[in-house]
Amino acid sequence: MPVLVSFPLPLTGHKGNDMKDQKTDSEPFKEGPKPIKMPVMMAIFDVLGFSTRLRNDKIDSVFSLYQEMVRSVITKEPMRCLGARDVGDGTRCPVLYSADIRYTYFSDTIMLWMPLDPLFAGPFVQRCADLVCEAVSLKAPLRGAIALGDAVMHKASGMYLGEPIIDAHELEEAQEWIGVAFAPSGIWSPFVAELSPIQIIEYEIPVKPGKEALRTPLALDWPRRWRDTREVPLSDVLNQMNTSEKYAKYYNNALAFARYSESHHDWHKKTDEVNGFKYLRMIKRDEIEAQEQRGTNAVKPRG
C-alpha distances in angstroms, 243 versus 6, 51, 96, 137, 287? Predict the structure, then answer.
C-alpha cells in the first residue's frame, strides 16, 4: 500500500488511527432529512478561465458544458466496486458495493464529497481523476484539491460547512497548473493507504509565491488515468488549448506534470532509488500495523 514517510502527517480531528474508527452513530451512507456533521472526503474544483468563457460563450453554453461534465462523470451509474473491510481481528473480508458520488456546483466551482469510509477512498479519488480528464476533453480544464475532515454537507438544504471546505478551497486557489493536489488533511496515512498507487504520485505542486505552506508532496495522477482510458496523447490536447498568454503558465506546468507522470509510470513497481521520491513509497500492511503497535504513524525517513 502507498504511504507518505518523513512528512508531517496532520491530525484530522478524529479519534483513533484507522479509518474504521471514522463513523458516526447515524447511517453514514445516506443523506438524512436534517444536516449533521460527519467525517467526509471532499474535493473542490475551479474551471480555469471561467470568467472569460462566460463573457465569450454566454450562459447557455457554459450551463450545457457543466451538464455534460456532471452527466459524463458524476451522475452516471454508481461504480460497482470490489473492496475489503476490516472485520476487527486483523483480517479483511472482501466486499462488493457501489459508490455514489455526491456533488454540487455553483458559479465556477464544482464540489464532490463522500463519507470518510475506507471503502470509498479509491472510488472517490478515481472519480476526481475522471472529472479532470473529462473536463480537459471538453476544453474546460480544472484545478482542484482534496481534503478530509468533519463537515456538514447537506445537499437538500444547501448547507455546506467545515474546515475541509476551507482547506480545499485555499489550496485550489493557490495552484498554478491544471491538476489536483492533496491538502494536508488529505494525506492522512490511513486514507492514503486505501488508495491505489496508480492514483497518486509524489510531485512538487506549482503554487503561487507565498502559498508553499498550503501544499503537500502528493498529487492526483490524473495523466495516468488519461493514458489508461484515452488514445489521444494528453500533450497534444493541452498544447491545442494553450492559446492564451494569461494562462500559459498553467498549461506549461500541466504539460511538465504529464511528462513526469509518464516517466514515473508504475512507480510502485520500481525501487526507491529509481523513483527518487522523498516521501512516497510502498510498504506492507504488517509494517503499518507494527508502527501502530509502537505508537508511531510514519516510517522513519530513508537515509
Answer: 40, 16, 45, 16, 49
